[in-house]
UniProtKB/TrEMBL annotation:
InterPro entries given in the database record: Bact_Chemotaxis_MeTrfase, CheB_C, CheR_C, CheR_MeTrfase, CheR_N, CheR_N_sf, PAS, PAS-like_dom_sf
GO annotation terms (biological process): chemotaxis; methylation; regulation of DNA-templated transcription
UniProt catalytic activity: L-glutamyl-[protein] + S-adenosyl-L-methionine = [protein]-L-glutamate 5-O-methyl ester + S-adenosyl-L-homocysteine
Stated name of the protein: protein-glutamate O-methyltransferase
Length: 993
């Protein structure tokens, strides 16, 4: 998950700025009217997308009040005519993007193929490609900037194409509340890009191209996200609670502590997709359609991540902070990391790669254990698969791809070495016990979605989880404000912090799942800000004066002793304690007051009633004082519910008893006895206080031990999930093994028969074959090989270099060595010494079943008849080519699908084309689309479909390079044999204007 949901106004720059052309009032009026509301539609496609673009703009009305940006994923070295081609199918202005161009509605913009384009504050910017050809992702690059700039006004559409470009971009658009459409893969010429986009599950609609315009227009006409319905939704807390209840009952997760702005906008997106206007109607729709609850749950969990996101932050972490962290470890220790909110696992694997590279660089011997958790089970399941699309090449360096991944088809699979470092588990940071004794904790772009109340609860948890000097790695939009005593900021920009080793105030200790006290812990309420108001009457003034003059010193505390309000002069009874400054009454109580205060607070909390004690002696700077101490639980007002009021009232010293006077001896004995009892009482009080403190300390240790046990249990559960997954795989493998064991006898018999068949096949085949080992010794050969080499059965085991051949070619040994070194097959045509026969020699590596190279296979196929035919065909082809070149008129020979087979020199000279680039090109794509002439299309359609011959038909066309040309065309369809398609001859006479 990423980026904080902050509404940022979209700023449109002044058109009169430097580099922008001045616009007329009529031209600038639409921009001024729609600069914050019009939709920007990004259209991405690769191979085969030109047809989709043509159909899209053919059905799209020119006054839709939307801007369109075409992002073709094409070869940057080829100059295309995309702008001219699209202009034929729409009346909207179509322009190629230049740096500094401002976007306007009802315009079509084409991204240049040799540069990457971004949209910044409604102005296009061009960038030099950072990735080499073949690894560039121009669609992702533009879609990301489109999502960040236009947010809910962004629309992404994926058309036909090869590869996975655009898959990450649609995630970004969806996360920023935009809309995503994909061409139906069944209608796409190449379906890789549409299918990869659909696999992300971040797609609103999968449609045919001709249906996209209607859906897009209806979406644009929906009320904006900040419409009145959202404002009503903010007021409808009851409706929102019902939605939370439905999600909680269906998934077990509570979203009540997520940011309301994010929740409402996600709900608004789902309402728009179903054309629902009222929030109450959507609640009813959720009740009637349980599958919509799952879809809304996934909508709320949208998480966009990628490998090494914010590459500068990861580089800083690896170069500066990880070495210091790892060098402090002992040999053989385990580096423990928790990645909270890991989504589909990219960040967890990125951290594991950084740690492994740093350990190798420092030449240390450490183990790595990364705990990666997320609330979404589907994301965890995908992370465990450890399989990612090939578009990760834009974020992962070639060295890391080679070391940590295996390429299979169009996917990259994480190697076992890296996969075993990471344990994935479903985990809710708000509910489940945290992992502990961590060296590093990363929680990037998750906290921004949580309310401030939940964030305040999580940071003490993070502090508790980390070891001293452990690293905390947050997202760039997250902050540690309010917790300076827990973490020391190392890098402000990239939010890298270190755990502070000092003691944390009691009020900020971790709230464990249970408590040993019999009363409920009350959350501290901050003192409301003091405001000075003008007194409206005399009664308030008199009451305030009376309180100041006659009310005894009073302190408002919570059950833990934290002070929230002080009335009167309390300096005689309370003083600041040594060490770190705190406002805790137990730490500040003067000698003689601490014991009685602790006792009364405990009794008041347990009995929930006012308690009082008399004649409490407190030692002050002016000598001992006697006070009456009263502690009263507060029930109202609501702001003070759960608090305690401590009243310290002065009292005169107790008078001695009046009565019979004792004799001096008796008085002396009594005084001594009283002093002895007072000493015993003081000693007992001190011992009792020590026992209480030790008990509190033991209680805290028990809490910590319990939390560590819960964390260990969580780790065991996570590991158990991994073990269960492995167990299922082992059970599956065991079942397969049992099946194989049952079939073993049959397979052994089949193998024997196959060996017999193979031996007879090799003996009866007409292909001469020799099997060599890695040292070029002969392992076996077929009978036909004796016609080429002077071989006998006794030669098995001898080197091929010792055998004489009947071939002119003398480099067979070098060719075999070359094949064994490069592991690539090689084919050579050879002639015998008597020049009567030709053989095609093919050398291939000999691979065992476990893909081990165990020599080479050399085959010789007789191609004498083929060589004779080839010489004949070459002569015929040369004859035909010379005839075509002699003809002075331009002439084309086309295949049945109108692709060029050959062209005369007169044609290439007349139209300034390169002969080597013509063969295989479609007629209408010649000269970068210059031959895409409607009249020519109609004429060739008659030739192909109606079998009609064209004679002296005139076509006039303005070529971009040559200028105006008048052509008289003649065409004939030439039928061939049944096994070969027909060909078309196209001759022409060309006249200049």
């Amino acid at each position: 998950m990423e980026r904080e949901e902050i509404e940022q106004p979209i700023i449109t720059e002044d058109l009169s700025r430097k580099g922008a052309s001045a616009k007329s009032p009529e031209e600038s009026k639409p921009v001024a009217q729609h600069h914050n509301t019009f939709k920007v539609v990004g259209l991405g496609g690769s191979a085969g997308s030109l047809e989709g673009f043509e159909q899209f703009f053919h059905h799209m009305p020119p006054t839709s009040d939307m801007a369109f940006v075409v992002v073709p994923h094409l070869d940057p070295t080829q100059k295309g005519l995309m702008t001219e081609i699209i202009q034929r199918y729409t009346t909207m202005p179509v322009v190629e993007i230049t740096a500094g161009l401002q976007i306007q509605p009802n315009h079509v913009y084409v991204v240049p193929s040799n540069q990457e384009t971004s949209l910044e504050k409604n102005v296009f910017q061009l960038h030099h490609p950072a990735q080499p050809n073949g690894q560039r992702m121009p669609i992702d690059f533009f879609f990301e900037s489109l999502a960040m700039n236009r947010r809910e006004h962004a629309v992404g559409i994926i058309f036909s194409g090869m590869g996975s470009d655009g898959a990450l971009g649609v995630k970004m658009i969806m996360e920023n509340f935009g809309m995503v459409m994909v061409q139906d893969p069944n209608t796409a010429r190449f379906d890789s890009m549409p299918r990869n986009a659909i696999k992300t599950e971040f797609v609103d609609h999968v449609l045919r191209v001709e249906d996209m315009s209607d859906k897009l227009i209806s979406y644009a006409q929906m009320p904006p996200i900040k419409g009145k319905h959202v404002e009503e939704a903010h007021k409808s807390t009851q409706m929102l609670q019902k939605i939370f209840s439905l999600i909680r009952n269906k998934t077990g997760h509570d979203f009540s502590l997520y940011k309301r702005n994010t929740i409402f906008r996600r709900i608004e997106r789902r309402m728009n997709s179903h054309q629902i206007v009222q929030l109450s109607e959507y609640v009813q729709y959720l009740k009637e359609n349980p599958q919509e609850v799952d879809l809304l749950f996934k909508e709320l969990l949208i998480g966009v991540t990628k490998f090494f996101r914010d590459a500068e932050a990861f580089s800083l972490l690896q170069e500066r902070y990880l070495p210091e962290l790892l060098q402090a470890k002992q040999e053989g220790d385990t580096v423990r990391v928790w990645v909270a909110g890991c989504s589909t696992g990219e960040e967890a694997y990125s951290i594991a790669m950084l740690l492994q590279e740093t350990i190798d660089k420092l030449n240390l011997h450490l183990k790595i254990q990364v705990f990666a958790t997320d609330i979404d089970p589907a994301a965890i399941e995908k992370a465990r698969e450890a399989c990612y699309l090939e578009n990760i090449t834009a974020d992962v360096s070639p060295d890391r791809l080679k070391r940590f991944f295996n390429k299979m088809d169009t996917y990259y699979h994480v190697k076992k070495e890296l996969r075993e470092m990471v344990v994935f588990a479903v985990h809710n940071v708000n509910r489940d016990a945290p992992f502990t004794k961590l060296d590093m904790l990363t929680c990037r772009n998750l906290l921004i979605y949580l309310s401030a109340e939940l964030q305040k609860k999580l940071f003490p948890v993070f502090h508790y989880s980390l070891k001293p000097n452990g690293l905390l790695f947050l997202g760039s939009s997250e902050t540690l404000s309010g917790f300076p005593d827990m973490f020391t900021t190392l890098d402000t920009k990239w939010k890298i912090s270190r755990r502070t080793e000092g003691n944390i105030p009691l009020a900020r200790l971790v709230e464990f799942p249970f408590t040993f006290s019999s009363f409920e812990t009350v959350k501290p309420h901050p003192e409301p800000p003091v405001t000075v108001k003008k007194e409206s009457n005399m009664n308030g003034v008199i009451q305030r004066v009376l309180l100041q003059q006659f009310a005894p010193p009073t302190v408002i505390i919570n059950p833990k002793g934290d002070i929230f309000y002080v009335h009167g002069r309390t300096g005689r009874f309370l003083e600041p304690a040594q060490g770190q400054a705190t406002l805790n009454i137990f730490d500040m109580a003067r000698e003689g007051l601490h014991f009685e205060l602790d006792n009364l607070v405990t009794r008041a909390c347990v009995l929930n009633e006012s308690v009082r004690t008399e004649d409490v002696q407190v030692k002050t700077d002016a000598g001992p004082k006697y006070i009456t101490l009263t502690v009263t639980p507060l029930q109202e007002p609501d702001a003070l519910h759960g608090m305690l009021m401590v009243v310290m009232e002065d009292k005169p010293a107790p008078k001695p008893r009046k009565g019979r006077k004792d004799s001096p001896e008796e008085a002396s004995v009594k005084d001594a006895r009283i002093q002895e009892l007072e000493k015993d009482l003081l000693y007992t009080k001190q011992r009792l206080q020590t026992v209480i403190e030790e008990m509190n300390s033991s209680l805290e240790e028990l809490k910590s031990t319990n939390e560590e046990l819960q964390s260990a249990n969580e780790e065991l559960q996570s590991t158990n999930e991994e073990a269960m997954t492995n167990k299922e795989e082992m059970q599956s493998l065991n079942e397969e093994l049992m099946t194989i064991n049952l079939q073993f006898q049959t397979k052994a018999e089949e193998l024997t028969n196959s060996n017999n068949d193979m031996r007879n096949l090799l003996d009866s085949t007409e292909v001469a074959t020799i099997f060599l080992d890695n040292k070029l010794n002969i392992k076996n050969f077929t009978p036909q090989a004796t016609k080429i080499f002077n071989l006998i059965r006794a030669d098995i085991g001898r080197s091929i270099t010792h055998i004489v051949s009947n071939l002119k070619y003398q480099h067979i040994t070098e060719d075999v060595q070359e094949v064994l070194e490069r592991l690539r097959s090689k084919e050579v045509h050879l002639q015998t010494v008597d020049e009567k026969n030709w053989y095609s020699m093919r050398i291939l590596p000999y691979r065992t079943l476990d893909n081990f190279i165990d020599g080479a296979v050399v085959t010789f196929t007789n191609i004498t008849s083929f060589k004779t035919l080839e010489a004949s065909v070459a002569a015929t082809s040369l004859y035909a080519a010379n005839i075509i070149d002699v003809i002075q008129q331009p002439l084309l020979v086309l295949e049945g699908d109108l692709r060029v087979e050959c062209a005369s020199n007169a044609f290439t000279d007349t139209f300034q084309l390169i002969p080597e680039q013509l063969k295989g090109q479609l007629l209408y794509h010649l000269g970068n689309g210059q031959w895409d002439i409607p009249a020519l299309r109609q004429m060739m359609s008659r030739v192909v479909q109606d079998h009609e011959d064209i004679k002296n038909e005139v076509i006039e066309h303005e070529f971009p390079v040559l200028g105006y040309r008048r052509m008289i065309l003649n065409s004939r369809r030439v039928e061939q044999t049944e096994s070969k398609p027909f060909k078309i001859l196209l001759a022409m006479e060309v006249f200049e204007k």
